[in-house]
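User: Predict structure, ligand zinc ion.
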Amino acid sequence: MAGPGRAGQALSAMLLLSAIGAGTYADRPQPRSIRIAGEFRILAADFHLHSSMWSNGTLTPWGLVLEAERHALDAIAITGHDELVDARIARRFSRWIGGPTVIVGEEIQSQSRYHMVALGVGERIDFRLPAAAAVDAIHAQAGIAIAAHPLKRFDGWDAAATKRLDAAEICHPTIYQRERAQEEFEAFAAGASAAAIGSSDFHGLGAMGACRTFVFAADNTPSAILDAIRARRTVVYGRDGTAYGDPALIPLAERARLREAAEEWRSRGGALDWWSRVAGVIGLFGLIVGGAERPASHPPLRRQQSP
Ligand SMILES: [Zn+2]
Ligand SMILES: [Zn+2]
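Assistant: Predicted complex:
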């Protein structure tokens, strides 16, 4: 009777162990490579991450910093929903460990039907503001305003707001989930003259940095990165390897093999990553179900006598 149950438990444990092994290998940290193009350093950045503190992500602010290291990101922005605290914690932690540059930011989830990422702000932006006024409020703090996933259904954008924007997301994970998303982002960008941004809007599932922005900055300080976005010095690769961004920088990006780098990070892990997830779920399920059935096959526990 106990034989098949125990064999099942052993198989589940083996599956779980192989999942942990495959996951650890697929997620092994990669060295950040320093890329130079003329007077600029090319930085790989992800400007839209959510933590588990007040922002319904699954990783802590320090967990996000460590995950960014694993994904060879030079710079990240932690963008809590209408708050800045977790970004400040992550910035302190990353300075302490010599990790990637952390830019303090927030994602404004507006009542006026737009989502906007504010980078480099010190005070929260009022989410009740219409989009154009929110952009002005970000600029008043010398921050950068980025349209977050500007799909058609976010209809809070008017011409005044899009004209004022510094940047707009053109690569966001939805382009790999919905056929029309890339076109909708392109249509938005066409009316905005904004820097191209690739962001993963990472909440814990999916891959951080799968959509990333290559920033051509003087150095890796937050102010140099914000200056580069202001000057529209970014290149982003979208679906099918389409390049977006500064037309003068795209040839430099090609020469630096950024297209290949973007594709590698998007498809990173591949079969190993898939196995890690599937075997992990099956193994864990097997252990839980097996564990729940076990007490019935054991003699009742005797009450411990005190000596
Ligand atoms: Zn959003
Ligand atoms: Zn978001």
